[in-house]
Amino acid sequence: MSISTAAPVTPSVRTALRSPRLLTREVLAGVVTALALIPEAISFSVVAGVDPAVGLFSSVVFAIVISVVGGRPAMISAAAGSVALVIAPLVRDHGVAYLVPAIVLGGVFQLVLGFLGVARLMRFIPRSVNLAFVNALAILIFTAQLPNLLGDGVPPVVWPLTALGVALIVGVPFLTKAVPAPLIAVVVVTAITMVFGIAVPTVGDEGSLPTALPGFTGITVPFTLDTLRIIAPYAFGVAIVGLIETLLTAQLVDAVTETRSSAWRESWGQGIANVASGFFGGTGGCAMIGQTVINVKTAGARTRVSTFVAGAAVLVLTIVLHDLVAQIPMAALTAVMLMVCVATFDWHSIRPRTLRRMPLGETAVMVITVLVVVATENLATGVLVGVVVAALVFARRVAHVVEVVREPVDKRTVRYRVRGALFFASSNDLVNRFSYAEDPEYVVVDMSEAHVFDASTVAALDGVEQRFAKHGSTVEVVNLNTGSTALHGRLSGHLD
Questions:
Q1: Residue 93 exposed, middle or buried by CB count within 10 Å (0-12, 13-18, 19+)
Q2: How far apart are CA 441 and CA 469, in angstroms?
Q3: Side-chain-side CA neighbours of residue 338 (13 Å)
Q4: Nearest to 185 by CA among 35, 51, 321
Q5: Which of 110, 130, 184, 378 is the most buried (most CB within 10 A)?
Q6: CA–CA distance, 66 with 78 (Å, rounded to integer)
Q7: pLDDT tens readout for residues 36-92
Q8: Which helix (H) or strand (E) holds 381?
């Protein structure tokens, strides 16, 4: 009897189109995902400070484009909260006219980063920073909802309506998962306000909704260095934050489907989608964890067909039902976003048991990253700071692993065994680990259990030889491995 060990293969679009059963599953998955996309796309538009139509069109364009050029089949990319939080200060401080060039430039950055293979560097982002990223994202989304609950002129009836929406989102999945719970919450809360004539802020109050297909939007701000100075930081934030969330989501889908995605293709695919979204007046976007889970795990989608259908369905539903969408209370969307916060936040990371078991340094990295993100309201800045702090913590930890053991051989010889990874942090005090005045005329430094990583270590070894020479001792460095021998031979004696 033979046992197949072949890895699962993602069905192709051609396979889906030729199989009525598979095609039906992909289409239904896309429609269900679209129903979950609409409330969040509108909510993220409000977070970004633009009309709901902007977020909806961004989701349409992004999903359709990424279904063709993306590197992870069945993953849903659309207008996302993380990107909305990056561009919100730009829209608030400089106006919506700078949105298009910022998103387009962000897409160009992603194209460049993708072709340079920077996506592969994302594996160097430690888990503590990834946790801080999602936790800080949840906190920022939560704080963005406070004006809808506590702002001036908000009627008290908004609070029980929001509470009802939260209760429905939590409770409905226990009864049925056939329809997304956020959609049911939005429908019920909207129906209550319309039937009973309850006056509350609505989506229509936030701006216009689409009544036709999206059109091409040009860049209206001047092409100057001053414009570049304004948009570049936000564009870089869009690129970095979008890639981080997208690649994290791709890893999730890879685990669920037991297949591999292309980080390189997904990176430049996101760039193309952001450029297209920007030129159609959208807010840009990236992969969405919640909607991807609905599409892949709940609905069972596996191909690009579902992603394409999700984008097309959002377009049809919003154009056909735009008058009804305008009546959706902001309380309903606030409930949706509050539950997005709950689902996004990694609660396991702050459990007392987890914190007790985690190394103090990693906990510090997570806390510092979250604090920087919340203080700056910039996810990209927080991630960069977190990576730097994590690198320093790692360097400090490894620096203390190096060991130097003195072993007398005879009256004329002493051997030092050096163990550990030698680099700038661990080799700085290497010179002080030897007994220069006490040692005999011949000293052997055995490096069989060590590795030389940089010029700092070579300089430290040269310093050891020079110190021994001043005391009349001859030093021989032995048993360097191949990489260490090459580096030591190239640099030794040339660093003074």
A1: exposed
A2: 9
A3: 23
A4: 35
A5: 110
A6: 9
A7: 788 778 878 888 888 888 888 899 999 999 999 988 888 999 998 888 888 999 999
A8: helix 379-399
